Amino acid sequence: MLYRLPKCNVYFLYFRLFFSAVVLLLFFYPAVSAEDSSNLSEKELKLKKAIAISSKKMIVNNLEGFMIFDGDVKVIKGDLTLTSDRAKIYFKNEKGKKESNLEAPPGEREISLMEAEGSVHIVKGTREARSDKAEYHQEEEVIILTGSPRGWDNQYKVSGTKMTIYLKEDRSEIEGSNILFNPAAK
Q1: How far apart are CA 69 and CA 67, in angstroms?
Q2: Distance (Å, rounded) from C-alpha 13 to C-alpha 58?
Q3: Residue at 150 is within a domain
Q4: Which helix (H) or strand (E) holds 48?
Q5: Which domain holds residue 31?
Q6: CA-based angle 25:31:33, to the nearest 5?
Q7: Helices (H) and strands (E) in the chain — how many of each?
Q8: How far apart are CA 49 and CA 32, in angstroms?
């Protein structure tokens, strides 16, 4: 004897599948400048622009122009991975503010800012960083870590009160810094 799911559960599953597909489409947005895009193929451009976000729970507020991700949040953009307990993203409007442009279709909205909090962990290549809070400013490609930020790779370990990472320029600024060179050496 086969067990049949009640109709309401089947509709709920269809809704979740449809909603998941829509969310994936939301994160294909323009993020590459004109000078960068001239040397990339169309496929490479799409991969560079994509952001994938997963979490246990997601809340979408189209009127206010933000999305909240809660529980085991994982954000992947290119070779950068960010994990945290919670994250909130804001969509850019035509004036560049946090609120979204409600006229733009969901697939054409651009992310302006992402705030992550709770056990933030960032990995990019051999470099890693941890903090209590992080802000990712999409247009500038800048990450600001606060709440006991610390970073490391195979050459050093650094900590401070505030860490600003400039991804485009491959540089960082650390306020109240402490650094240990060659941490693997004994």
Answers
A1: 7
A2: 16
A3: yes
A4: helix 42-49
A5: 7-181
A6: 145
A7: 3, 12
A8: 7
Residue 157 lies in a domain: yes
- Gap between the Cα atoms of 88 and 116, Å rounded: 6
The two tokens of residue 116 are 């992550």
Q: Is 1 a member of any domain?
A: no
Prediction pTM value = 0.68
Closest C-alpha to 50, from 19, 27, 83, 73: 27
* Per-residue pLDDT reduced to its tens digit, 79-113: 899 999 999 999 876 444 444 445 555 556 678 89
Is the distance from CB of 75 to CB of 67 less than 8 angstroms?
no
β-sheet bridge partners, residue 111: 91
Of 161, 165, 166, 164, the residue nearest 177 (C-alpha)? 161
Per residue in 23-71, pLDDT tens?
Answer: 444 443 333 333 344 455 555 545 566 788 999 999 988 888 889 999 9
Domain count along the chain: 1
CATH number of the domain enclosing 32? 2.60.450.10
Q: Retrieve residue 151's tokens.
A: 């970073």
186 within a domain of the structure (yes/no): no
